[in-house]
Each structure stands twice: as C-alpha cells, then as structure tokens.
C-alpha cells in the first residue's frame, strides 16, 4: 500500500477481526470492547461497524482452543489507530488471535455517514464450552475419564455374569413383573 | 490457444496432459461475486482437500482473481476460518 501521507480531512479504512477465548466471560469481552473503543477515540478514529459473529469452530486449534468467539470491527483512522488497537489486543489475555486489513485509502471524512457504537454489541450470551482437547491418552483410553468408564463397564459385565449364574432369580423377577401387568 | 474458450475438455494426447476442468473465471463471469476472506464457504472451492490453494490451470480463475483469491485464502487462514493443512 502507498506510503504517501494522508491528505487533510482524510482517513484510511480498516477492519479488524479478533478471536476471544470460547469460555469468555461477559465482563472480559466487554472489557476488550471498551479498550478498543478508547483506542479509536484517543487516536481520532471513527468506528463505523461492529459485529459479533459469535462462537465458531476454528479450522485449527489456537492456544489449545478448538472454538473461538469472533468479533468484527470496522473503523476509519490512521496508522496510529491501528497500532493502538493491535497493542490493546496483544495485551489482552482473552484475545487469542487478531488480524487487521486496510480496506480503503484516502477516504474523505465528510463522505462518511456510518457510525457504530461498541455498546451495540452485547456479549450477554452464554457460549458453549470448548470441545475437549484431543490427547493421545484420551484416544487410547488411558486418561482418568476412560478408566472410570472401563471400570463401570467391567461392573456391568460382572452383574451380567451374576445374572447368568443365577438364572432363576433373574427370570423369576421377569415373570413376576409380567404377572403384575 | 484461444483464451476465451469456455471449456477445453478431452485428452490432449499431443503433450500427454489431461485437462478436464472448466476454463472460465467464476469472478469474471459474475461481477456481483466478491472475493472476501470472511466467507470461507466460497473460498473452499479454491482449496484442495489438503488445504492447498488450487492452481489457476485447475480452478480456471483469471490472473487477477487468482491473485485476489490467494490473498483472501491466506487471510482466512490467519483467523482460522480456513486450515493451513488438513490431514486424512
């Protein structure tokens, strides 16, 4: 992109997508949003669109998460705006990935009528918990959960065995039930 | 070869290579279609099962749109909308 200085009364248009941890709390998500809002405000930027895409499945795991909460932000500003926004995103522990893209250069600010408010996005939704992490132990049934499952199965088998050894008891119970009906 | 051939099917025994795909750029024939990294479903057509970017000679995209597609796919990969690789 061109490195030519911006003309007066003009700005560049950017959009940023950032991904929050799937188990994000509402307060923390709002915290990131307000920090971005302040970043845009303090660098004379103008927020034009905010969208919450919600929780999506990640194409590959990031920071051991398989899902993420996507937030999309579109704004006008200068390089300093982007620098401040990215600094805030980098500082936040709740954000696992972000990407900023320049859409247009030299946008006359008088032409811009869109305006958005960070507060319009409500994080007041409960997101599904993340999928359990893929581990070799779990795949092979060596973790605690699998051990518990195996133990239960073994108990069931043992009960079956007992029933097999005492057929009268089992059948008698069945017959009694039929008679009741 | 005429660049505007819509289809170039059949076996080309002359140079021993097969070409069996449509040779028309999707984004040229439909001007309303926009290449957008935020739309992974549309981009999936242009990646292989392994996640690689499909070459122009297969996808049929024109030079301009192939370049735009490559950028869009790479952007989509960064925000985990598309995979870098896929196994099995």
From the structure above, extract its key features.
heterodimer, A: 181 residues, alpha+beta, Alpha-Beta Plaits, 2 domains, four-stranded antiparallel beta sheet, 4 strands, 39% helix, disordered C terminus, B: 88 residues, mainly alpha, 30s Ribosomal Protein S18, 4 helices, 2 strands, 33% helix, globular, disordered N terminus
Write the layout of secondary structure elements.
The complex is a heterodimer of chains A (181) and B (88).
Chain A (H helix, E strand, L loop, with lengths): L9 E11 L5 H17 L3 E17 L2 E13 L1 H13 L3 E14 L27 H5 L3 H22 L1 H14 L1
Antiparallel strand pairs in A: 1-3, 1-4, 2-3
Helix pairs in contact in A: 1-2
Chain B lengths: L10 E2 L4 E2 L7 H4 L10 H5 L11 H4 L3 H16 L10
Antiparallel strand pairs in B: 1-2
Summarize the structure.
Chain A has 181 residues and is of the alpha+beta class. Helices cover 39% and strands 30% of the residues of chain A. The N terminus of chain B is likely disordered.
Tell me what the structure shows.
The complex is a heterodimer of chains A (181) and B (88). Chain A contains five helices and four strands. Chain A has 181 residues and is of the alpha+beta class. Chain A folds into two domains: 10-120, 2-Layer Sandwich (Alpha-Beta Plaits); 136-180, no CATH class. A four-stranded antiparallel beta sheet of chain A has the order 2-3-1-4, with helices on one face. The longest helix of chain A has 22 residues, at 144-165. The termini of chain A are far apart. Residues 177-181 of chain A have low confidence and may be disordered. By secondary structure, chain B is mostly helical. The radius of gyration of chain B is 14 Å and the shape is globular. Chain B has helices spanning 26-29, 40-44, 56-59, 63-78; strands at residues 11-12, 17-18. Chain B has a domain at 24-78: Irregular (30s Ribosomal Protein S18), CATH 4.10.640. The longest helix of chain B is centred in the C-terminal third of the chain and has 16 residues, at 63-78. The chains are: A alpha+beta (181), B mainly alpha (88). The interface between A and B is medium-sized, with 14 and 12 residues.
